[in-house]
Queue: 2 jobs
Job 1
Amino acid sequence: MIFKIGETFEEFFVISDEIYSGFIATFNDRNPLHTNQQFALANGFKDVVMHGNILNGFISYFIGEKLITKDVIIHSQEIQFKNPVFLNDTVVFNAEVNGVYESVNAIEFKFIFKNKLEKVIAKGKFQIGLLK
Amino acid sequence: MERIKILAEINDIFTDTLDNDDVIINEDTTANDVEEWDSLTHIQLVVAIEKKFKVRFTSSEIQSWANVGEMITCIQNKAV
């Protein structure tokens, strides 16, 4: 098995305007929390809040591009959003192999996103399958 | 652990994994008897069962199971 329990990974991502604008252009989620600064301020946020599912995109990139093998498929993914992220925030992604199920070639990871202030912005787990 | 208790635990895993509260399995049940029991669901079932009973199967063990009863026998042989 190419993954071992306890194996850890770390990636850094910046929520750039390109990603933010691209997400809106692709999925059309223009909810005012994400696009109207006054609305965001009125609801207690310091600026418009980035779409939480941008983080899921980073997870997709990590699984699809950064693992030791490309022969992977996502079986499941769960995420809890803990704190907002804002435009141009840098987020630190840490993942750890949480379970190895060789019988069915499945690997479970737990993950956490933190901002530069070490505040947890999201956490969860995902399971991948090895295709070969 | 008694077979009947293992079966009850597995049934709970099936209803949860398959999102179908009406699923009732018995020792003779096979994948052909449960509509939602496809290859991807099978992976989720095995992972959930391994977690629940704190056991690990081999791929050859899984492939050898002809029905749920053989799955239970395998769990019984491994569970402490």
Job 2
Amino acid sequence: MTGVPGSSRFSPWSGGVLLVALLLSIPVLVVVGYLFEPAGEVWRHLAQTVLKDYVLNSLLLMVGVAIGVLALGVSTAWLTSMCQFPGRALFEWALLLPMAIPAYIIAYTYTGLFDFAGPVQSALRSWTGWGYGDYWFPEIRSLGGAALMLSLVLYPYVYLLARAAFLSQSICVLDVSRTLGNGPWRSFFSVALPMARPAIVAGLSLALMETLADYGTVQYFGVSTFTTGIFRTWFGLNNAAAAAQLAAILLLAVFALIVLERGSRRQARYHHTTQRHQALNRFQLDWRQAGLALLICCGALLFGFLLPAGQLLWWALTTAEENLDARFLSLIGHSLLLAGGASLLALLLALFLGYGKRLHGSWPVTLAVRAAGMGYAIPGTVIAVGVMIPFAAFDNALDQWVRDHLGWSSGLLLSGTLVALLFAYLVRFLAVSLQTVEAGLGKIRPTLDEVARSLGTGSGEIVRRVHIPLLKGSLMTALLLVFVDVLKELPATLILRPFNYNTLAVRAYELASDERLADASYASLAIVMVGILPVILLSRSITRSRHAATA
Amino acid sequence: MPQQLEVINAGVSYGAQPVVRGVSFELARGEIGCLLGPSGCGKTSLLRAIAGFEPLSEGEILLHGRSVSRPGSTLAPEKRRVGMVFQDFALYPHLTVAQNVAFGLRGLKGRLQKKRVDELLELVDLGGRQKDYPHQLSGGQQQRVALIRAMAPRPDILLLDEPFSGLDIELREQVARQVRTILKQEEATALLVTHDQLEAFALADVIGVLGEGRLRQWDSGYDLYHKPGDRFVADFIGQGVMVPGRVTADGCVETAIGCLRGLFMQEVEAGQRVELLLRPDDVIHDDSSSFRLEVVDKVFQGAEYLYTLRLHDGSDILCLVQSHHDHAIGEAIGVRLQVEHPVTFPLQSSGNN
Amino acid sequence: MSIQRLFVHLVLMIALAFPLAASAEGEVNLYSARKENLIKPLLDRFTEETGITVNLVTGKADALLQRLQSEGRNTPADLLITTDAGRLHRAKKAGVTQAVESAVLNKQVPSSFRDPEGHWFGLSLRARPILYVKERVDPATLSSYEALADPKWKGRICIRSSNNIYNQSLVASLIAADSLQATEKWAEGLVKNFARPPKGGDRDQIKAAAAGICDIAIANTYYLAGMLTSKDAAQREAAGKLAVYWPNQSGRGAHVNVSGASLTRAAKNRDNAIKLLEFLVGDEAQSWYAETNGEYPVRSDVPASELLGSWGSFKMDTLNLARLGELNPEAVRLMDRAGWK
């Protein structure tokens, strides 16, 4: 490297970034490639019958989830970061727990609890003597119910990012607002909220991308969305081309979402003009306000975690038929291994791409980095197929070449191995670690690098002595978020895993899809428990990074 | 013995856009220099080129006789032995004050390192704050930590980029004088970049005024004020007005306030129209003078009033008067001129070149 | 720095723990759409008896088929097991299966439950009868699937979403029995009789009927069996309120589908794979399906379990199941048009 970073000339690094981004875009490109394949008259059929429903339901679901995650995420983030009330320290980390519960599992548990035949309604009927049709009860398996389920497990994304933003806000700007005659509530809406907007929007876009990609919940609730439409077209109508075209349209929607999010960031720069932060002086709530705060936080925790986890535990203790034998332990081992491996790889790649963009931020590099994060909103099955087809094509082409030239068969090198599965995880979840790492890198002012260099420190040493310590919080976050996501991931795992290689999510799915919800509780509970530890670590690392981040 | 810093005909460009052109100057060991100019004049680019963060598009930079920058060849900043203090201080939030100061002390280990750190902290009155984190310090304290961090490895030259702009205005001059004392105690060679001339006067031995990418004058503060090399410097440094005049046959400049003998910065001919720089302290208030001018504006500056007086041809001059001479606007006061070497420039339709 | 050391350890551990190698020679590799717990015990028994190891990947049938197609001649899979004949038919059409000539298989599996050319063989039967609430429905008012479109059932029927393959097959069988137009009209009538928009699985329909939302549920028998043998008292109680009615007994018979298996075209362990197929239609395996999962044996000479026996014997639709696969896309479109969610 020359002594001048930021020179836009081609470097090996930006070449590497482009290559990695291209590799990661392959599955997306495979899907988009289907746009040019004729899908026959299926499209007319779809347009005449169900397409309107798919689009409308997907949009309504997104609106519902957006409202849900914003209401839950922002309010809890504000309360735990800016207000003082009993139990605040506990809620700080506990509010992240719903993250550990896969959306399809919370859907199963809520159905078990609140369905007509479930304990809640049955109890209601036995008390009152009512029968079917005598009373109204909210239908859990509906569009609204799906939005609620997804909101309950996705709000932590907004909570996480909004909280970090609130914590890093200088209290001075709030005080200024107070002196200008705004009460605490007005100050919140006119100052704190707009300043945290980029973080909130980033969290929202993660939640919405997950919503678009969700299949398990909406399928179980009988809500036809774009994603269920893709599968119906593929499996039911046996038309892969039309299914891929639907997926490509979904991709366009995601792309629009990303552009929107970037746009909202660019319009205003929300840097703090002062580097002086005062210690947070939390608002002391009176008993009524504290009661309300407790109610909100307890509500989120109860409905997002305690209730579903409790139901799982109840099932596990009473009715489940599952042996905690060596085979079950191997499920845990596999899940841990995959989640650990994928999160590490995703972190390394995110660092590589993030640094590439920081050091050589030319437009092709920036675009490539964006493209590498596209997979997040694509249903796992679609990504899996997008991985399977090119990997198998590569293996078969190589095999053909070896047969022709060397006279033996190399068989399948990558297909059906964990390499293919890990690759699919990277495509699907890189966006999560990339976003976190980029945000962390963005906070390291260039002068921090320059001062180190003027003090005789080389690039490698700068990374070790300056960046890693400063990024520690972000790196932890990236690692843990992907870990939990992979732990919960189902469709790609199901399709791409090697022989005799099951995970907790696969086990839970197989039993649940066989309508043995109670039996699925062991595996589900194991996912939740394995997921809780990283979530707690995550929250701690964020709280700690607050102390170092302000200077 | 080579100079500590030699800048020879240096130029810096961003893409095709030159921001600094043909700048040459030198700094001797232990000397404190300053690049002074309005924002956008290229002074920070030049400083960054000396540090090694920007490549040169022309010319050469030598540090301690060693060529470090030429077009196409830029020695990395970490290999130059320069120290730099940034506008935002750039302290490491994850390190303590002592760790920040020791950051560049690679060769010094253990007790020796601690001794150097303690000694420097003592020097800037921060003894005992070793274990604090940067966010626990005030702005001025952070600034001093940034300074000694850059000085700790005893660099060949210390570069300071607008180091006082983050401080309160009333603190700046005082801190600048403190910094000068520290630099002199450490016998450091330093180059400062600023847009504030009072800062420059307080800190530097020698000052270069940059305007539109060119070095206009490289001189002491006194000479910049009293013998500005061109209109740009004259306008930028200090207060004053340009009074139009004409050169008479005997070398005197005929103006609305009389005929003055001056120091011609450029060759002029008899009959040529010129402008004459009149500083406020060139105009003396004297009640006994018969030359009376009307007060059109006045500004209280503590010890003095700065009066704006209207000449008969309608142009204005400035006059600095002790503040117990309080005159109302509209009043006519007596003045006389006390100009030793009035500086004149040939009249130009526009601009400063 | 501890975080860095932790990093290195993690990387090493994970790198060492990843199995990359495929299976060894002679082992049978199986892609199965049957869930692990509904196939693995049989495979373990097979290994015990023959010493042949079986490697298993489970998944959704279409995804497994896609995987088979992509992998082409290098696929490690020797066998594909699905839970409906339509998918096996699709696999045959896609050219990834091969014909098997086995005297055992041809003798044991009735001809309507295997491919005429030997590309696939049924292993177990899943029947989809009408379940009715004993308290509220007189079985004499029931007759056929077709009759469920009658307005007298308005608001009384529970059935799951048309996304489900069992419903797609059922509708395909109706199309095969009559015409597209007649079936579409039937579907429209049936949708009008729904007690609620389709949601949940088959067990949910049974629960809904037991709870009084509807009087009739359409579900596969093994779900009812699973509930009746559940550890959960509530499930047993709910299932106990319903009885099985075998429809169309005077006509073509009740709708059945199979779970079945194909030998892949690229199978490298052909002989052992056929041994496994023959084991799966053997006495032990056949009665296991009935005892463990409430499915009917594909062989008429193997008795169904006591529970299945209690629902009586019935006449099955003998339509060759390959036809269901062919008609499947047509059925889905028809349900789309009829507004069957």
